[in-house]
Design a protein that fits this description.
The complex is a heterodimer of chains A (120) and B (107).
Chain A: E1 3-7, E2 11-12, E3 18-25, E4 34-39, E5 45-51, E6 58-60, E7 68-73, E8 78-83, E9 92-99, E10 107-110, E11 114-118
Parallel strand pairs in A: 2-11
Antiparallel strand pairs in A: 1-3, 3-8, 4-5, 4-9, 5-6, 7-8, 9-10, 9-11
Chain B: E1 4-7, E2 10-13, E3 19-25, E4 33-38, E5 45-49, E6 53-54, E7 62-67, E8 70-75, E9 85-90, E10 97-98, E11 102-106
Parallel strand pairs in B: 2-11
Antiparallel strand pairs in B: 1-3, 3-8, 4-5, 4-9, 5-6, 7-8, 9-10, 9-11
The chains are: A mainly beta (120), B mainly beta (107).
Chain lengths: 120, 107
């Protein structure tokens, strides 16, 4: 069974840092593009970042460029999101998501989400 | 950036009703569109991809249509489990964007 388990969410101060993790199981992790998608409290979904199978290609929404870094460790079947210079508007539930096996860009599996709260 | 606009934002309907949600893209996205269902406190799950392809395991009462800039999600006969929020998403390049959501509530 495909599983994505998100972790690492916490309370952080503005300007602070957090690292989110996503542990994958039940599929060949190294064969799939992966993504982070976030959802602010009571709001809609916002795509954050994508990474290709070997980590050589990374794409970000403008609002996090230069502050967030997506990465992966295929040996550990894990996806990461390093979040620096956090702002109040980064407060959200962060989901890792698997991109479909033809790499076209829709999300066929999601983690349960991890809550990041940025507040002083 | 491609803007995705859903209508209506809220929809009230009854069990057994046929409902349609519309999603419009600010420029052509061919058929690179997906639909998701999200229930409170849960992660989204994909219903439809490539505008009209039903994801494995999704009931056949869900259907999608459209291409270019206008798309629809139709539920042919609402079931109690269908009351949720629905999002469209384009994947025709970066940035990937979602519609603002349509909340389907019980009348």
């Amino acid at each position: 069974e495909v599983q994505l388990v998100d972790s690492g969410g916490d309370l952080a101060h503005p300007g602070g840092s957090l690292r989110l993790s996503c542990a994958a199981s039940g599929f060949t992790f190294s064969s799939y593009w992966m993504s982070w998608v976030r959802q602010a409290p009571g709001k809609g979904l916002e795509w954050v970042a994508n990474i290709n199978q070997d980590g050589s290609g990374k794409y970000y929404v403008d609002s996090v460029k230069g502050r967030f870094t997506i990465s992966r460790d295929n040996a550990k079947n894990s996806l990461y999101l390093q979040m620096n210079s956090l702002r109040a508007e980064d407060t959200a539930v962060y989901y890792c998501a698997r991109i479909d096996n033809s790499h076209s860009g829709w999300f066929d599996r999601w983690g349960q989400g991890t809550l990041v709260t940025v507040s002083s | 950036d491609i803007q995705m606009t859903q209508s209506p934002s809220t929809l009230s309907a009854s069990v057994g009703d046929r409902v349609t949600i519309t999603c419009r893209a600010s420029q052509s996205i061919s058929s690179w569109l997906a639909w998701y269902q999200q229930k409170p406190g849960k992660a989204p799950s994909c219903l439809i991809y490539k505008a009209s392809t039903l994801e494995t395991g999704v009931p056949s009462r869900f259907s999608g249509s459209g291409s270019g800039t206008e798309f629809t999600l139709t539920i042919s006969s609402l079931q109690p489990d269908d009351f949720a929020t629905y999002y469209c998403q384009h994947y025709n390049g970066y940035p990937i964007t979602f519609g603002q959501g349509t909340r389907l509530q019980i009348k």
